[in-house]
Amino acid sequence: MKTFDFGHLLLTLFILTSFSWAWPWPPSVPERDGLIQRRADPTSASDSSPAETGNAKAADTGNAAKTAAGTSGTAAASKGAAQTKSGATKAAKTGAQKTKAAATKTSAVDPRLPPGGVNMITPSAIAQPSYYKVMDHVTFAWNYTSLSVKPARIDAFVSCAANSATYTLLNNATFEPTATVVWDTNAQPSDTAPFLTETYTLVIHDASKDLTAVPVAGHLGKFDQFYFGMYIPQPYTGLSGKSSPVLFESSH
User: Fold this and answer.
1) The pTM of the whole model exceeds 0.90
2) What span, in angstroms and rounded, lies between the C-alpha atoms of 143 and 119?
3) For a FRET experiment, which of 26, 211, 228, 229 has its CA 20 to 30 Å from that of 134?
4) Cβ neighbours for 206, distance < 8 A, ≥ 6 positions apart
5) CA 33 to CA 20: how far, in whole Å?
6) Residue pair 235/246 in contact by the 8 Å Cβ criterion
7) Which pLDDT tens digit goes with each residue over 41-80?
């Protein structure tokens, strides 16, 4: 009896199992294949999302653009530095050429030549000593000799050693081959020392040089070799005690 019960049980289980496998899945239950997920492969290129692929491409493109920009900037900087160096080299060469030209021009003067001088025209250098009355107009005219290099500007003045005074005729005047100056002795600045009856010296020199500069061959040296007299008219008192006209007049 026990054997019958055990066999009957096995038969019942077998029938139930076969029936359950043959019965179709209800619509509300997902297919079995859908319930079994495929294993994800993180290293597979085909499983990458489109967004991730686009980001990777954008990053590669940006890096390439940065590299190109850096290369271009470096090339531009190198070119600019080369141009700057070239400009500096050209400027240095130009300056050196100008300096060399100036030196050549200066050295072209034969050192055996005498310094430039002044030749008096009015009054003549060979005339008798001249005397001028204070308050008169005095005319001086001159030209230059032995000038290989002409000065750009000229100074001229009259000096008197007795009162250590100077009276300006030309101040930084443009050089002219022949110069003429009319000196109004009655129109001197108020701060100028008064005239004395004394000997005066006409001085002419290159305005760009000191009066103490050593004369150079072909260049204008200081001229101070023309002397003349100035006097203040005095009334003449005769034996009668009456005043008479001035004792002497200008010889010019």
Assistant:
1) no
2) 5
3) 211
4) 151, 153, 154, 155, 213, 219, 220
5) 18
6) yes
7) 544 444 445 545 555 555 555 555 555 555 555 555 556 5
State the Cα–Cα distance between residues 200 and 167, nearest whole angstrom: 10
Mean pLDDT of 143-163: 97
- Tell me the per-residue pLDDT of 87-141, one tens digit each, with 9 for 90 and over: 555 655 555 555 444 444 445 899 999 999 999 999 987 888 899 999 999 999 9
Two tokens, residue 84: 């700057």
Q: Are 223 and 205 in contact (CB under 8 A)?
A: yes
Q: Quick one: how far is CA 8 from the chain centroid?
A: 122
Where do we find the tokens 């007795």?
Answer: 162
Residue 224 neighbours by CB under 8 Å, 6+ apart: 159, 201, 202, 203, 204
Calpha distance 223→158 (Å, rounded) = 11
Q: Distance between CA atoms of 110 and 168, rounded to whole angstroms?
A: 34
Label the pairing between strands 243-246 and 131-133: unpaired
Backbone angles phi, psi at 88, to 5 degrees: -65, -40
Tokens of 191: 């701060």
Classify 155 as helix, strand or coil: strand
Q: What angle do CA 149, 221, 191 make, to 5 degrees?
A: 120
